[in-house]
């Protein structure tokens, strides 16, 4: 389960986030390419922006389910 106390700092404010257990493996970016971005060093991903409609919410949910390290959470602030 993702830890909202260990969010990557670049996450856009909101309930969706990536924590520091991201590998990265790219799976979530395939599911939500409009929401998730790689860090400059490409060593993790983060939510560049929060979902803004039901389709994007669904994409974020798919990204969460695709993550092998459970680095994606939807219980952020
Ligand atoms: S699926 Fe998980 S481990 Fe893979 S890049 Fe996304 S957040 Fe990181």
Give the helices and strands, then pairings.
Blueprint: E1 17-18, H1 27-31, E2 36-38, E3 45-47, H2 54-66, E4 72-73
Antiparallel strand pairs: 1-4, 2-3
Bound molecules: iron/sulfur cluster.
Iron/sulfur cluster (SF4) binds near residues 24, 26 and 69.
Account of the 3D structure:
- This protein has 77 residues and is of the alpha+beta class.
- The chain has helices at 27-31, 54-66, and strands at residues 17-18, 36-38, 45-47, 72-73.
- It has a single domain (4-73), classed as 2-Layer Sandwich (Alpha-Beta Plaits).
- The chain contains two helices and four strands, in the order E-H-E-E-H-E.
- The strands form two sheets. It has a two-stranded antiparallel sheet. A two-stranded antiparallel ribbon has the order 2-3.
- The site of iron/sulfur cluster has 14 residues, from helix 1.
- Iron/sulfur cluster (SF4) is lined by residues 18, 22-28, 45, 66-67, 69, 71-72.
């Amino acid at each position: 389960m993702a830890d909202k106390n260990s969010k990557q700092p670049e996450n856009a404010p909101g309930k969706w986030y990536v924590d520091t257990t991201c590998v990265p493996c790219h799976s979530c970016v395939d599911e939500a390419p409009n929401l998730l971005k790689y860090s400059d060093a490409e060593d993790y991903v983060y939510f560049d922006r929060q979902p803004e409609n039901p389709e994007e919410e669904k994409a974020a949910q798919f990204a969460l389910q695709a993550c092998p390290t459970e680095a994606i959470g939807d219980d952020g602030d």
